[in-house]
Design the sequence.
């Protein structure tokens, strides 16, 4: 069973014609050709990490479903991808899972816009930590991630991208905590902050040259 296969999806949303159609649509969205980082590999990575961290969640299945939908709509030319993804989750899951869980999934998807879950939000902490895990990778893996993000924003000039990316990095570095789960925070935080600071320094040098 692959992480993004129908069997994994069916454990959360059931095996019905409607569920099978929705799974196919979600997978197709993640496979859009303009995606370079926010693609099926990213979805699988987040799902895998959510699985590892799920013991900390109060509703692990809601977090898993939120992972499926958190970037289901991804258009680098618009600034409301998370909001539209949350609405896509509401529409797609209606009738497949209980209404309360649908709303929790939508709430969690919205959280990935800022990655700043409230204290005590265990579900939000699991999803956001899994989504931001890439920041704590080895420098070469982080560089590949940053390069892929740049490709997704190929429609922007270097100056426009540098300004936008700088704002994103500054936001992340200013968060009260990059990671909320004690199980990963101590190990991941120093590596992530080092990677973010290195990229930010590079962008600032480019902007001033």
Sequence:
């Amino acid at each position: 069973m692959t992480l993004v296969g129908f069997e994994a999806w069916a454990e959360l949303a059931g095996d019905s014609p409607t569920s099978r159609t929705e799974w196919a649509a979600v997978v197709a969205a993640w496979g859009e050709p303009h995606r370079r980082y926010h693609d099926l590999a990213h979805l699988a990575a987040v799902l895998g990490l959510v699985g590892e961290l799920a013991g900390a969640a109060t509703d692990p299945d809601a977090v898993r479903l939120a992972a499926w939908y958190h970037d289901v709509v991804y258009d680098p030319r618009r600034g409301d991808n998370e909001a539209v993804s949350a609405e896509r989750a509401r529409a797609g899951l209606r009738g497949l899972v209980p209404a309360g869980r649908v709303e929790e999934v939508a709430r969690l998807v919205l959280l990935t816009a800022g990655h700043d879950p409230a204290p005590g939000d265990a579900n939000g902490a699991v999803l956001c930590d899994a989504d931001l895990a890439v920041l704590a990778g080895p420098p070469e893996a982080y560089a590949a991630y940053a390069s892929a993000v740049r490709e997704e924003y190929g429609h922007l000039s270097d100056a426009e991208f540098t300004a936008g990316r700088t704002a994103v990095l500054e936001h992340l570095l200013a968060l009260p905590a990059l990671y909320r789960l004690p199980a990963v925070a101590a190990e991941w935080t120093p590596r992530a902050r080092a990677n973010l600071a290195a990229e930010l320094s590079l962008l600032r040098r480019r902007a001033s040259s």
Q: What stands out?
A: The chain has a mean pLDDT of 97. The two ends are 50 Å apart (CA to CA).
